[in-house]
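Lab channel / #folding
Pinned by the channel admin:
"Please post every new chain as: sequence first, then the structure tokens as a reply. Keep commentary short and put observations after the output so the thread stays searchable."

First post following the new format, from NK:
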Amino acid sequence: MQSEATTRGGEIADLELERSLLATLLADNGGFDKIGGPQPDDLFDPIYASVLAAGLDLRAERRPVNLTTLRSRFAHVPFPSGGSVLDHLKTCEFAGSTPDMADVAAALRDLSQRRDIQRLGEQISGSAHDHGASPASLLIDASRGLDDLLSKCRPAGKTLRTMPEAVDDVLGALHGRDEDKRILTGLTDVDRDTGGWRRGEYGILGGRPSMGKSAVATAVGRRAAKAGHGVAFFSLEMTTRQLMARMITDACWSRDLPISYSDALRGMLRGRELATFQAGAREVRELPLLIEEQSGLTATDIAARTRSCAEIFARQGKRLGLVIVDHLGLVRPSNRYRGQKVHEVAETSQAMAHLAKSENVAVLCLHQLNRAVEARDNKRPTLSDLRDTGNLEQDADVVMFVYRSTYYLERLKLDDPAEEADRVALLAEKRNDLELSIAKNRNGPTSTIELFCDMAANAVRDKWRGR
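Reply from TO:
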């Protein structure tokens, strides 16, 4: 087949391929239901693009695509090189053998993507002359443009399933053949009730400050990495050094020798504590875990860096499984809803849910609840605490809350000696208790799970293990 390539306006295109696509679709209407792309925007010639759009519309209306059904739309539309659109469609319809549709569609997508790259390059080159913007801001805009292109160019996963495929998928899960889709938390009761984090799902871990959100997130992230899953941790609040001190003291924790991450950060470890900490560091050092500590990232930035993390793990022969964002309120919103906090949070939440599905990873976002919880006698968080912060409850597949009664007991001072003695005794009894409430679980039960925690060491365990 002789190619009719063109660089009209300096852009890359192949009109012969575009005509071949239309010829193939006219010869076999079923092709409209199979191609899954390219879309009209992928065609360079506006006439061919409008014909493809008309064909897709007709198939959506369950009508055949032929000269008769297209006549009303294109009977009097001229073709730039002379004749009418229908004249050229007749040529397409009665052309000889047609090429393989998959090959043509793939080639046209490739050309479309190359044109997009070319245009972005020209845009970046032109922006260098904008002296009203700093080089850093120009690079940020360029990186976002590249991220959008990368997202478009990455092959989409299969989304249309036949009944046999759907049934086999369920049976595979029933017989434990879906391990790659699940990232276990390493906490027995949590895994029992949730099945672990699942690829394509978005979870929220909420709570007031100092309740243990970061401790839980660090613990489950470390365990996921230890099980072989790639983990990307977006630490928008803590530095890498602060996060690593917590992760190592969690890894090397024992009841006989708990190590304070605060002491580690201040360089106060000696003797057995130092040796134990160094052993924990050696274990953590080998984990497939990447940490991004830059603050002020947008949801788009997080998506771009998630894809970069996936590429890094792929080169190491591993697969990104879990993305942790600490925390949702520190994700910088776009300008779309400037100053409208509820809408800003909702937009970010929806972006995180989309990230889970588009990159086929589990996404866990920490969320700091507002002070309304403090005004209640019962300070345990509930789903109602999310309802004034966008669509978090609606977006998430799993919503969990952390709660430690000792946080409030430590700050309560009673004048009555007997009552104060009871408070101190209760504080000692509850010091290592952490409640994890599964308030929403799309694929399982809701429950409240009691865990063991040593907050000074950032250690979280099954309750029976801690004891």
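NK: Residues 298 and 332 are 5 Å apart (CA to CA).
TO: also worth noting, The chain has two domains: 1-156, 183-466.
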